[in-house]
Write a structure and sequence with these properties.
Layout (H helix, E strand, L loop, with lengths): L2 H34 L5 H5 L2 E2 L4 E2 L2 H32 L4 H14 L3 H15 L6 H26 L2 H9 L4 H30 L2 H6 L19 H10 L6 H32 L3
Antiparallel strand pairs: 1-2
Helix pairs in contact: 1-11, 3-6, 3-8, 4-6, 5-6, 6-8, 7-8, 8-11, 10-11
Length: about 280
């Protein structure tokens, strides 16, 4: 068998593997779109739920999801990027930093239900924040931090050392080199990590189940210490806990959640592409 034939067989197997992975995803998305499109209208997106959530809209759940995602971003982005900068640019390669990196990798693999129980014990009970947006955002931020730190650190380490050397040779301090040269060059990878973490936070059910999510709350929250509805938990409730729920409402809610996640992903892709075009290597 010639080298070209082996290459063709390898490409064919890779294409088959890609189709095997992508096709079920497309079928699931298509099924959600077909079944949920009938429920999508202005009232469904902007009205309060009523009649035991069997009528009305999902506006409180939609707003609650956006508030939780925003709260998570406010907490985890500065801490995650700052931690990555320290580990990549300042920390020496010692047993302690290696142990910290190992702990970060292990934390990224912990099931979300464990984070939910941790948030319940620390933020809801010990710190007495109650079941609130603040407790839920902090719990989701802790869950998201390992992803942001690890991906941001890899993005920073991927920037060639020559960029730092040139900055030092021109009389710049280490922080000036990081802020003006390294960070802008690593920004596409950092944004990718941030969006991956926030997308996971936006779609999680277990952590908010213990810390913030309300079963039925047909009003908007008034402060960070209020409970709120959220799309992932709302979808779980109307699919499993409410008898006689119309199917189109279930799939419509799933479609809205899917649209929110894909929209965030699209915005992140556009931002990442913009900064990648400006990258100098």
């Amino acid at each position: 068998m010639s080298r070209q034939q082996v290459q063709r067989i390898g490409f064919a197997l890779l294409a088959l593997a890609a189709i095997t992975v992508v096709l079920p995803i497309l079928l699931v998305i298509g099924n959600i779109v077909v079944r949920g499109l009938a429920a999508i209208n202005w009232e469904f997106l902007t009205a309060m739920p009523k009649n035991g959530m069997k009528a009305g809209g999902i506006f409180p759940a939609l707003v609650g999801t956006l508030l939780l995602t925003l709260g998570t971003a406010v907490v985890c982005i500065p801490m995650g990027v700052g931690g990555a900068i320290y580990l990549s640019e300042y920390a020496r390669d010692t047993w302690l930093t290696r142990a910290i990196r190992l702990a970060i990798v292990n934390l990224a693999g912990i099931p979300s239900i464990v984070y939910g129980l941790f948030g319940l014990g620390l933020f809801v009970l010990f710190l007495q924040f109650g079941t609130s947006i603040l407790a839920g955002s902090l719990t989701l931020a802790i869950m998201t931090l390992p992803v942001i730190i690890s991906t941001s650190e890899e993005a920073l380490r991927a920037v060639p050392m020559e960029f730092r050397t040139v900055s030092f040779s021109l009389g710049g301090t280490r922080w000036q080199g990081i802020r003006n040269i390294v960070l802008p060059q690593a920004l596409p990878g950092i944004i990718t990590g941030i969006i991956l973490g926030l997308l996971r936070a936006a779609g999680e059910t277990a952590p908010i189940l213990f810390t913030v999510a309300a079963f039925y709350l047909p009003r908007l929250p008034r402060s960070p210490f209020d409970q709120t509805m959220a799309l992932p938990y709302h979808l779980y409730v109307i699919s499993t806990q409410v008898p006689g729920m119309p199917e189109h409402i279930q799939y419509g809610t799933a479609l809205v959640l899917l649209a929110v996640v894909l929209s965030m992903n699209l915005v992140a892709t556009l931002i990442r592409s913009y900064f990648r075009r400006r990258r100098q290597w």
